Fold this protein.
Amino acid sequence: MHNPTADLAIRLARANFNRALAQSDLNAISAILAPHVTLITGTDSALLNGRKAQLLAWKREFAAPAALRTTYVRTTEAIIASEVEPIAMEQGAWQGVDAGGKVQASGTYAAKWRNLAANATQSRWVLEAEIFVTLK
């Protein structure tokens, strides 16, 4: 179902997540992740269970020298909100770009979001799950 409010809120949350990745901002990333978030990586299908595990992985990623670091960007293509639960599915494309701007890897992803807001007039969408597939 198309829900313009959910669509906009999730797109803003995704933009904040992309910005946090580019700026190595673990606090901003943490605020967008549900405590029990699950991530399945695109190449080796490594499973990261929980906010703490994901933040540790990002901390290791951010520790690489800037010249050697890959920055990941997710680009939303579609959002489908549930008609019966405060959840939504995001689908899109992702890419990892090196410091010189060259794409190192790319593919597709799907993400499950949950609205934690107490009522329908507010929104606080958090990521519950993401799965990535490396295609290039």
Summary: DSSP finds three helices and six strands in the chain. The chain has a mean pLDDT of 93.
